[in-house]
Design goal:
It is built from nine helices and two strands. The chain is mostly helical. It has a two-stranded antiparallel ribbon with strand order 1-2. Helix 2 packs antiparallel against helix 3. The longest helix has 31 residues. The chain starts with 13 loop residues before the first helix and ends with a helix.
């Protein structure tokens, strides 16, 4: 298997790592009773899996790298869903204060964007380990503009092909941000069924957080 040093144009992993660490930091911004597991467990598991993924990638063990990446996402997703469920329970049982409600809803909304951006980045086109081995990204679950716009002077080729373009984490973060704000993919159409279903889940979580925020703001006014 090719290691990271043997790939001609390796896909940068640091934006995704920063995103994951930001999601971990946001988890600590939640009220204590909305956090998943014992104190510090989520952070410890995520950092350990990130280390395993880094070692596996540089050793050319792409299957181990992918499994560690999915493990990170599973933990972050569990933390997100647990926080949303506990927020609902606290709201119904009237055990959460107004300041905690506003803080928790805001944190969960931001975490939702990062977690689903990482899911899209990890799954689209076979994931980063597969995408970086191709010259250009021409097929995937999302139709980015570069994949559809014809290259100037070459009607039979797209910008992605002529410029050897591939999406990175920031591109998927943009898609996830639009999904949580406009509740639609805006300029990036969704092609695959798994992506459509995943975006539906993201939108539901985002709408929940926004409704709670707006509802609380109306009560204050």
């Amino acid at each position: 298997m090719l290691s990271a040093h043997d790939i001609e144009r390796p896909e940068p992993r640091w934006p995704a790592v920063i995103g994951v660490l930001a999601a971990v930091a946001l988890h600590f911004a939640l009220p204590a009773d909305l956090r998943f597991g014992p104190q510090g467990m989520l952070a410890a598991v995520v950092v350990t899996l990130l280390a395993v993924a880094w070692v596996a990638r540089h050793a050319g063990l792409h299957h181990v790298n992918a499994k560690a990446g999915y493990g990170v996402l599973a933990v972050l997703t569990a933390g997100l869903l647990y926080g949303v469920a506990r927020l609902f329970a606290g709201l119904v049982q009237h055990t959460i204060t107004a300041p905690d409600l506003l803080r928790a809803a805001s944190v969960l909304w931001a975490t939702n964007v990062i977690v689903f951006a990482t899911w899209y980045w990890r799954l689209d086109g076979g994931g980063p380990n597969v995408r970086e081995q191709g010259e250009a990204h021409t097929r995937g679950a999302f139709l980015f503009p570069q994949m559809a716009v014809a290259s100037p002077g070459l009607e039979d080729a797209t910008l992605a092909e002529t410029e050897k373009w591939r999406p990175g984490f920031v591109d998927y973060l943009f898609v996830a941000f639009n999904t949580s704000t406009a509740f639609s993919p805006t300029d990036v159409p969704v092609l695959s069924r798994w992506a459509k279903l995943t975006m539906m889940v993201q939108s539901i979580i985002s709408v929940t957080a926004v409704v709670l925020l707006v509802g609380r703001a109306v009560n204050i006014l």
